[in-house]
Amino acid sequence: MSNKEDTFVVEDMHCNACINTITKTLTSNENVSNVEADLSTKEVKVEYDDENFDVEEILSSLDMIGFPATIKKKP
Questions:
Q1: What number does CATH give the domain 3-71?
Q2: Does the global pTM surpass 0.85?
Q3: CB of 53 closer than 8 Å to CB of 31
Q4: What is the dihedral of CA 64, 65, 67, 73, to 10 degrees?
Q5: CA dihedral in degrees (20, 26, 29, 32; nearest 10)?
Q6: 44/1 Cα distance (integer angstroms)
Q7: What is the pLDDT of residues 24-36, one digit of tens each?
Q8: Contacts (Cβ under 8 Å, ≥6 apart) of 56
Q9: CA 70, CA 2: separation in Å to the nearest integer?
Q10: What is residue 74's predicted lDDT score, i.e. its pLDDT?
């Protein structure tokens, strides 16, 4: 298992209920090991097994629950 962490910008994340929905959805996938959401920056950090799961699947999962996102570029 190879873990990778990426940060996503979720502009439509406005409250704790949004965080709970996003966290529950992403952690329901066995390939996601950790999710941290921050309302003040509208960012969601996702740690996942990049051998079995990828960025496009994360973006698709977020979009399906009404939270379109973009991946944050690393400096």
A1: 3.30.70.100
A2: yes
A3: yes
A4: -60
A5: -110
A6: 22
A7: 999 999 999 999 9
A8: none
A9: 22
A10: 75
Retrieve residue 69's tokens. 């996102």
- Max intra-chain CA distance, the chain: 33
- Calculate the dihedral angle through the C-alpha atoms of 47, 73, 65, 46, rounding to the nearest 10 degrees: 10
- Residue whose entry in the numeric block shows the structure tokens 């994360």: 58
SS (H, E, C) the chain: CCEEEEEEECCCCCCHHHHHHHHHHHHCCCCEEEEEEECCCCEEEEEEECCCCCHHHHHHHHHHCCCCCEECCCC
Weakly modelled stretches of the chain, pLDDT under 70: 1, 75
Where along the chain do its domains lie?
3-71
- Reference 39, options 13, 68, 8, 6; nearest CA is 13
